[in-house]
Amino acid sequence: MKLALVHDWLNQIGGAEDVLDVLVQLFPQTPVYTSLYAPEIMPAHYRQWDIRTLWMDKLPSIHRHHQPYLPLYPLAWGGLDLSEYDVVLSNKSGFCHGFQHGAGTLHICYCLAPTRYVWQLDSYIAREGISRPVQMALRPLVEALKRWDLRAASRVDHFIAISTEIQERIKTYYHRDSVVIYPPVDTTRFQPVPLDQVEDYYLIVSRLIPYKRIDLAVQAATRLGLPLKIGGKGRDLERLKAMAGPTVEFLGYVPDEELPGLMARCKAFLFPGLEDFGITPVQAQAAGRPVIAFGGGGALDTVLPGKTGEHFSELTVESLAHVMQTFDALRYDPTLMRQHALQFDTRLFNEQISNYVHSAWEARHVAQQNR
Asked: Which residue has the higher pLDDT, 137 or 143?
């Protein structure tokens, strides 16, 4: 079975890249097709991969600012033909599922999300603070992108969703069924500590960008005078610092070796945005710590109210502050929280994805032989 992996872009590190890393380990020596690759930004071990970029990779400043080239992605991906492969597994949140292939190629899409700024434009505009003139220019473009995206989705043979939230969006936007396979989380890195080592701080580890809604946590902690540590970097840092009180501490980038201890010692982990899945809440639970998350998106799968944490019901400072004010971390059993996290472990992901790919390919192969 000749297989290729497809990924939208390689100029930032996030949950999508965590998934890709695991897929490359699961299918070694497999080429990775992507629109652009910035080796100076990405981890050094990526240089050992067989990464194949599109013509977009040579456009000016695209490694640092790929968003302005939005209209070109469908053209670039639509010009890529992967008919030489038996199976193509796309790791998609943008446009990479739009490549061309023949009837002999099986396309399985691991869907991180139907393209957000295409199907959820209003919420994207609100959280990014896009000016009105730019909005006016975007809307007709987005309508055209919707039509392209729907046609691209129709060429996918099988969809896999990362959460029940994404499964519902695939059904709503693409009119397709899907199965759910949760993203991989390396739970072995995280272990509970004795309760006498747990400290009195809330924790966030995230890219600091507007849609993560870190602002809700900063304002809630400031209003209540509660200690909050925030790990991560991003373009929203200065805005968040401006609204933060003395109990909020910005840690900057948290090295991988420091993250498990930081999580294991926190009072609770905060996950204030609406996310498609969210790996960090699972990591926190693997470390035996409860999570306070907005009650929507992937948190509905990963955080069990009353058992592994709590949901707050509205994306407002008041709603989050109410839960934080009454939160008792001693109510939650570290052993139970870790057991819950294990159902999202990398080992299980590898088994499920591998079985799915091979079963789908065998079924296709048998069907072709019987024609």
From this structure: 143
| Token representation of residue 368 | 């072709």
Residues of the chain with CATH 3.40.50.2000: 3-184+346-369, 187-343
pLDDT greater than 70 at residue 128: no
Residue 140: exposure state from Cβ atoms within 10 A (0-12, 13-18, ≥19): exposed
Q: What is the mean pLDDT of the chain?
A: 94
What is the reported pTM? 0.87
Q: What is the arrangement of strands in the sheet containing 3-7, beginning at the earlier edge strand?
A: 51-53, 32-34, 3-7, 87-92, 106-111, 158-161, 179-180
Q: Is 362 exposed, middle or buried (0-12, 13-18, 19+ CB in 10 A)?
A: exposed
pLDDT of residue 84: 97
Name, in order, each residue with C-beta under 8 angstroms of 64's C-beta and a sequence gap of 6 or more: 11, 38
Residue 39 has pLDDT above 90, yes or no: yes
Specify the fold of 3-184+346-369: Rossmann fold (3.40.50)
For helices 279-286 and 334-341, the axis angle rounded to 10 degrees is: 140
Report whether 163 contacts 114 (CB < 8 A): no
How high is the pLDDT of residue 25? 96
- By the 8 A CB rule, do 51 and 37 touch? yes
Angle made by CA atoms 19, 142, 298, in degrees to the nearest 5: 35
Written as one string, the DSSP assignment of 88-109 is: EEEEESSSGGG-B--TT-EEEE
Taking Cα atoms as reference points, which of 76, 154, 73 lies closest to residue 109?
154
The pLDDT assigned to 124 comes to 66
**284 pLDDT band (50/70/90 cuts)?**
very high
Rounded distance between C-alpha atoms, residue 214 and residue 240, angstroms = 8
Q: Specify the CATH superfamily of domain 187-343.
A: Glycogen Phosphorylase B; (3.40.50.2000)
The answer to whether residues 41 and 63 touch, using CB atoms and an 8 Å cutoff, is yes
The answer, yes or no, to whether residue 31 has pLDDT greater than 70, is yes
- Please, what is the angle between helix 317-325 and helix 214-224, to 10°? 50
